[in-house]
Amino acid sequence: xxxxxxxxxxxxxxxxxxxxxxxxxxxxxxxxxxxxxxxxxxxxxxxxxxxxxxxxxxxxxxxxxxxxxxxxxxxxxxxxxxxxxxxxxxxxxxxxxxxxxxxxxxxxxxxxxxxxxxxxxxxxxxxxxxxxxxxxxxxxxxxxxxxxxxxxxxxxxxxxxxxxxxxxxxxxxxxxxxxxxxxxxxxxxxxxxxxxxxxxxxxxxxxxxxxxxxxxxxxxxxxxxxxxxxxxxxxxxxxxxxxxxxxxxxxxxxxxxxxxxxxxxxxxxxxxxxxxxxxxxxxxxxxxxxxxxxxxxxxxxxxxxxxxxxxxxxxxxxxxxxxxxxxxxxxxxxxxxxxxxxxxxxxxxxxxxxxxxxxxxxxxxxxxxxxxxxxxxxxxxxxxxxxxxxxxxxxxxxxxxxxxxxxxxxxxxxxxxxxxxxxxxxxxxxxxxxxxxxxxxxxxxxxxxxxxxxxxxxxxxxxxxxxxxxxxxxxxxxxxxxxxxxxxxxxxxxxxxxxxxxxxxxxxxxxxxxxxxxxxxxxxxxxxxxxx
Length: 532
Hints:
mainly alpha
């Protein structure tokens, strides 16, 4: 049985090599010549960025060979703790200066519903809090019936707004900044988790390198300003990985937290479920050939406890939503067949399509909707053909992966309401950097793209080393990480393509990249030693 396990693990590593080779090839050689949704023209091409990154690695090797520099013997743990507090304050300050309310799902539906709950405890009192969004109860409820995963977000935000209202800290146009402060805390916490996880599995110097990368890619990302699931769920995948890797947590408690947390995470952002599936697959592979009755008994206890907790949580949430006036209509829910159909939309190249939404919304119930979605999907697949569909997938891959800002500023009415600059003298300058099409936004886009390209390349390096190790590679925690990234990539290829859907997994991407940094550093050092 151990032989079959080794074969399956080898297959996973080979798939990861193929997938990231495809990604790296597309972003380096095809990004400028192919047309795809949400395409951004960076001031420097990806080829130049890669040459720069390779040059930086070569320079590092030369410096290390000549022993002109070495990692200092520092207490990285304390540095990270101090930096986490300081950086949280910096994040809040930056967000306060660039704060705005966005449109689309967040500003048009979620925040008005959350505000209504905070003020009156019932969705029927919902009002458009912006003059440009004077929506009524029926409109907001109709949206939540179609996308019920937003219901938990609405409740979480309503609690934050209610607490802020009682404390009276942020008022007027800036009352929704209280949610942004929570987003900043989540971002800082996620960056710190990267260091904690990496320091347990790898050396502290590599963990600290990952923390620095996370601060640049995640910590300074303006997505913290957006009050929506992407910022709220950022910590969930990496937290699940942390719980899975933490050997100090008792077995039953660990997996109960993973499964129950996975369910609640799914209620906020369905993609969170991917990391739970990855952990389950990793654990199943670990247990192939094992017949430990005690282990199976513990698993049975975990299933019973987790199942009961999930049922109780689901029942409580459903009753809560009904008391608040939501009472979701299941027949109006948009299902996976809709997203599969929309992922093949030829005009939008797999992106969100209002035409496809209207088509699904016109169906009377889920059965009719699924039947229509499958019918249209089959027709589109037939029209594409094998080669045409592969080209579409390649374009969707570029939409998802060729943007280190994760499609910042390109969704709907992104800057729906921008308050007047606060009197700090800094607000205007920061907006010139972070607001897209602003005078210095090119700098922000370039920096984030360089860091993101580095992350992708280092993951590619790691996949090659892991595949080359074969049966010697028995790191099941890493296996869960790479399975998460494979699952997310395939999910975004098959369904709706959006770069921001990758954002909640950026901490997991960084962890995988740290593995690549470690492997490359080991290989270069070993090669240098063999030369003498």
